[in-house]
Amino acid sequence: LLKMYTRVISYLFLFSILRSDSLTVSGTVHNDSGKEVKKAHVTLRNLQDEILFEDKTNRKGKFLLEDIEPNFYYLVVEHEEQGFSRVKLNPRKTRNRDLILRLELSNVDSMVQCYLFANQNPTNFDPALAVDGLEATTKAEQVTLTWKDIRQANSYRLYENGVEISIQKTNRLEKDVTPGKNNCYTVQAIGDFGLTGQVSGEFCASAPTKAPRDITIEIWKNILSLKWSPVNGAKSYIIKRDGEKVSSEMGPAFVDADLEFDKDYYYTIVAVNDLDQESENSIEVKGKTREFVSPPILSSMKDDEKVVLIWNEVDAAETYKVNRDGEYVSSVKTTSFSDPMHPGKTYCYQVTSV
Fold first, then answer.
1. Within a 13 Å sphere around the CA of 22, how many CA atoms are in the beta-carbon half?
2. The sheet that has 285-288: what strands, in order across it?
3. Closest CA to 140 of 213, 242, 245, 243
4. Are residues 247 and 308 in the same domain?
5. If you compute the radius of gyration of the chain from its CA atoms, what whole number of angstroms results?
6. End-of-domain residue from the set 205, 238, 259
7. Which residues partner with 62 through β-bridges?
8. For 132, left (φ over 0), alpha (ψ -120 to 50), or beta?
9. 273-312 per-position pLDDT tens digit
10. pTM of the model as a whole
């Protein structure tokens, strides 16, 4: 008998523990004129909209649902003549309490409000749809947004600088952007029956430009002239020679002078946007200066009608360029040049091997 008594006590203790978190959901139902509605059908449903508990309001419009475990629910009230109402119930992490509600029926669609098991005023947003963990990563002309996925969310509404730009199913967005412009993003989760969470805090990000491309190098003696295609969003360019910065240019060109003869040089170029963000390095390109060619030793002979220039042959020279008084006159492949001269005239000549 003692064992049986002990067992009964144990069962009662266990039952009291199991029921300790059970709550009641009660309240009154009114129409839009404030009058109590009797015989309204009240149902408590899970998130799949399946009925778990139900009751009908009495003549004073009251209803009572007992032994409710704190969880996520929809409370739906229906009446053939007076209309319809749906609210969402959300549990708290701790200290859940019985709910006492005052619900109003309407024959027009209305916003689904949310209650906590705390007898506080309802909210027009769903706390279960709060977006968290919004982050942005960037690469050339692109921003990627990510955030924590929400089980109860069907989709997400995204804003850029306060303007809606997308509604999508996933918790990730890749977006092409103008480089060098700072944009701020927010996200709002959307659930069933028009429920929405609060708009998230904003996350601001900007993207760098693409790397310079189509680089060409023109060679003249010990001078290398670089050109490349303009980069969208670039305000300037950093030129690196053999890995070290040698210049910053506003336009897509650079002349590297006074280099060593007959030597290889390696260049990369970086684009810089209006926010001073640097792009990735361009593809490395190589330029090689010409071999050093000694200038020809020039002499001249003249008579009354012409002057004849002669000079020594220069190794590796293919042609010789003749200038008179600083202006180009001719190119020849031989080591002499005859130029008509008027009496009393004096000219200065320069010959360059090419």
1. 10
2. 244-249, 236-241, 264-272, 285-288
3. 213
4. no
5. 42
6. 205
7. 28
8. beta
9. 999 999 999 999 999 999 887 777 788 877 778 888 888 8
10. 0.75
